[in-house]
Write a structure and sequence with these properties.
It is built from 16 helices and no strands. The chain is mostly helical.
Length: 321
């Protein structure tokens, strides 16, 4: 039972509760417009804090391992999307799930969990900080670009509109840049209140999820997705993660990476960021489409945490022995 509690992500339980609330009491009419406005403000705050937390010192301390960082970015933004394109191209997922699965594969890596698992596995923590931070930073630019290039071509979504580009600039890029530029003045506050600001991060994501699923529920989301389809979606998420874990393991050996760097490649390269995916989807896609698109990343998020927690403890135990 204790292991089950450790494996389950409390934040995922909050997400599930938020989806349940949106399913029972979705925001409608003026309530929906207010929820959307609050969610947009939450996205701005989220990326402002991401910019303020990005440490230049951490970047320079681990930037020397360029081969490792290129391999990690290549896995995140090339190998992963190829898997997503294969699923969409060969019809391995139901039509209404392909957009969400492909979007999942276009997202950047996580930061906190990638670094934490690298530390547990006795990997190169400084390099993990750099790889995960670079992935998140580049994801602000690359994920929308990949959505524009790949999702329409695969028949899984529509091309980014002018309003979406405006949203990317005003809600993602500008707050991120402003937050990072203000880091010399607010960096100490951010560091001292890390736990509190982490709750603000999560609260912002929950607001976006509630607004997105409210719109989707009003459009009849749960009448379109069956329990069997959700199980199939979980199976596909497991398959994607297994493929990438094996790929990163083999790639690390091919590149001759040290054990510590190979661990970074596996944990930073195999993750996808729910924290980045929720606001990016909220900016890029119509409100009613965001809920279904977020389902795969919500499921994948928990699966990757459980799988990587198991691997990290196993790698760490090998060193202890």
């Amino acid at each position: 039972m204790n292991r089950l509690r450790q494996a389950l992500d409390p934040f995922l339980l909050l997400l599930i509760a938020t989806v349940a609330l949106a399913s029972i009491l979705p925001a409608r009419g003026d309530g929906a417009r207010i929820a959307d406005a609050i969610a947009d403000a939450g996205i701005v705050l989220l990326f402002f804090l991401h910019g303020a937390k990005l440490s230049r010192e951490a970047i320079w301390s681990g930037a020397k391992a360029w081969k490792l960082h290129l391999a990690t970015l290549g896995t995140t933004f090339a190998a992963f999307p190829l898997v997503g394109l294969a699923i969409a191209r060969f019809g391995l997922a139901p039509q209404d799930m392909r957009a969400g699965l492909l979007f999942l594969t276009l997202l950047p890596s996580t930061v906190q969990s990638s670094i934490a698992f690298t530390a547990i596995a006795r990997g190169n923590v400084a390099a993990a900080v750099v790889s995960a931070s670079f992935s998140n930073l580049l994801g602000i630019f690359l994920t929308p670009l990949l959505v524009a290039l790949l999702m329409q071509r695969s028949g899984s979504g529509s091309l980014i509109s002018l309003s979406s580009i405006e949203g990317i600039v005003l809600q993602l890029l500008l707050p991120f840049i402003v937050g990072h530029l203000l880091r010399p003045w607010i960096g100490g506050f951010v560091t001292r209140h890390k736990a509190m600001l982490g709750r603000v991060d999560r609260g912002s994501i929950l607001l976006v999820v509630y607004a997105a699923f409210s719109a989707a529920v009003v459009e009849g989301l749960w009448s379109k997705v069956s329990g069997a389809e959700l199980l199939a979606l979980a199976g596909l998420c497991i398959a994607i993660l297994t493929i990438i874990l094996l790929f990163t393991l083999l790639l690390g050996r091919m590149l001759g990476l040290s054990r510590e760097d190979a661990i970074v490649l596996q944990f930073c390269g195999s993750k996808k960021s729910l924290a980045s995916g929720v606001p990016i989807a909220g900016v890029l896609f119509p409100a009613a489409a965001v809920g279904p698109i977020l389902l795969p990343i919500m499921i994948f998020h928990q699966i990757q945490l459980m799988a990587c927690a198991f691997l990290a403890r196993r790698y760490g135990a090998q060193i202890d022995e």
